[in-house]
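Figure S7 source data.
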Amino acid sequence: MNYEGATYRPPVESDSLLLQVTVGCSHNSCSFCNMYRDVRFRVASMEEIEKDLQEARGIYPKAERIFLVNGDAFVLKAETLQAIAGKIVEYFPECQNIGMYASIGNIKTKTDQELADLKNCRINDLHVGVESGSEAVLKQLNKGHTREEAIYHLKRLNNVGINYATSLMLGAAGKGKGVENARLTAALLNEVRPNLIWLGTLGIFKTVPLYEDVLAGRFSLPTELEVLEEEKELLSRISLDNVILQANHPTNTVPMFGVLPRDREKMISHLNAAIEHYGKESLFKLMPPRLNM
Ligand code: SF4
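Tokens for the predicted iron/sulfur cluster complex:
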């Protein structure tokens, strides 16, 4: 299998076959992200994709889920994605789920009919980098979408029945703004009703623009205590039925996994227990220890 540059996939896709259809990320300018900084974006050719499918068919007896990599594979035109899905079904007829990372901007460029056609081609699991429900935070992160656009285009996915997970980032609002960010983000989630909520925590690498913002005083990191309080606020305000919440990324102080609303109280107690264990005072002094990564 051919993988060029860095390759990432969501934790829930750990058993999926990873098929490279793009290299890097077409946006590649979120202020916190260094995942594909050094990778030049390009689209894999159909010949490359078919060669990988042939090789995979020889290795794997079956592949029920296939995840298209890399950073925002949904940037591909609808007709290209349909052609790729067609090839997948040719080699892996048993595959029922084709997923990939998508930005709000990627969804925006597709018509309702195209989204419906993609759903019919088994493209029915997107991992969307929403990060926050706050307009100011989205701007700081340079996500390339507004809160209003996120709500509008995620609802378009609902209309055609494409499942999606929303990726969110705790701590992204900076010092003193976590609770407000949680309220705005929970309101967004309650309106769009994702199938899965994925929670990570802001980590700042020295190679990203947000690091410069920290040095210049334009962005202040929250303390660990603030991040945990933000997470509690978010959990308490999500009013969705039977939604999976996955917060087990290594950047999270307290790894958690559960289903809301069933596990809400247990998860909040878990966060309270962590705050008690480490002590409010020490957590208040502690910045997320990520500047040296
Ligand atoms: S869209 Fe995703 S992969 Fe691309 S720069 Fe932003 S966070 Fe990174």
